[in-house]
Amino acid sequence: MDKKNRINIPGYVVLLFLGLLCIVLLFFSFATGFSGGPVSALADYVFTPMQEGLSNAGGAISHGIDSRREKKQLLAENKRLNNKVNELESKLTNTRLKENELTRLEKLLKLSKDYDKYKTTGARIIAKGTSNWFSTFTIDKGSADGIKKDMNVIADNGLVGCVISVGKHYANVRSIIDDDSNVSASVSTTEDDMIITGGLEQIRKNGLISFSGLRDTKNKVKEGDAVVTSNISSKYLPGILIGYIAKKDNDTNALTSSGTITPVVDFSHLSEVLVITELKKTGK
Amino acid sequence: MKAVYYFFRGGIIFIALILLFILQTAIMPHLQLAATPNLMLILVSMMGFMRGRKTGAFTGLGAGLMIDLFSGQLFGTYALIYMLLGYLNGFFRKIYFGDSIRLPVILCAATDMVYGFIVYGVFFLLNGKADVLYYILNVMLPEMIYTVICALILYFPFYHLNNLLDRIHNRRERRIV
């Protein structure tokens, strides 16, 4: 081996150089909101097409395993649910009559709001985030399909999360159970505002997400009340259902209360979601 | 001429990283047992102690950048973490001889545990989530155990990958002489 011919850069120089590069990237991304830029082309042409195919295959495998296990369970559940359907149907007719009356009265007052008329586009989840710590996932639609950053994502009629970064043919979504997610929400009955924070610990222990800062001095909010996204949120469109209050405790300051919410979305079994193709107008 | 071989070796590691990334994000969520294994960290760790600090650091940087692209954290966070872990693994090259599987298993487990503590410290402890024991028992340990199992399976493919890289390296040496 001819040692003179080798350019030998010491290891610590490489470490320093790469470390500096990373730190520069961090500052750059902090200052400009850069999240990939030209590198995301790699994701567009290499990752997403392969992920799409493989995710299908993986889904088929786990579906096969699950289906055998769940058959018995489903039969029992089916019986129980059939009874419930009958019970609920009678209730529904009752509600429908009331709803008709309501729309008639609303028309008179010209009050009806268009909450349920958001335009949506369907998307499939093709990959989960790489770590066990965060709940982000990737969907198969991107800027080419009109998806933009901060668009809301829903499924099962409930809020799933919002888009955090967009590539040409993919988008990353952070779900509301993620530790980094904060949603401004309000109770549908009293319209009191609160902040909903996701958390790995809470969702794994009992499948709940926590809320805080609810100003409810008259104690009108009850367990089981529906919680929707609020009007004052900067990212989330108003009136999307998040979940129902599971537990409410008064804080020690005697002004606000906090507690937990049962989300309507089953986050562990998501495969398709709807993206609302409208951005919240914030007057910027 | 030399640069060509560097690119060639880099390219092989890069392709391995891409395959592992896709395996980890698209297949592993369906085979989840309490946690998903950290396959990319296995490659970073193994490249570290098989090929030294520099290769470890570069592999880590590549893996981290791919993860950053999809993580939604500040761009560069994971690149820094993985790069440091790859570099640190490089120090164990002196005691790695390839004849025993004990060292790779211990190193992969330790690397994954350290990774867990770094992620916990950076993203959770600083957010006021101080219940360390819960996170160790429910996130770090399951991930570590699953990662070690995957490391056992992946060790031999990576061992041969390392031999392949060695052969490319030797050919370069011969041409120069």
From TrEMBL, chain B:
The gene is mreD. It is found in: Cell membrane. This is Rod shape-determining protein MreD. GO terms for cellular component: plasma membrane. It comes from the Bacteria. The keyword Zinc does not apply. GO terms for biological process: regulation of cell shape. Belongs to the MreD family. The chain crosses the membrane at residues 6-23, 70-92, 104-125, 145-165. It comes from Candidatus Weimeria bifida. It is a multi-pass membrane protein. Keywords: Cell membrane, Cell shape, Membrane, Transmembrane, Transmembrane helix.
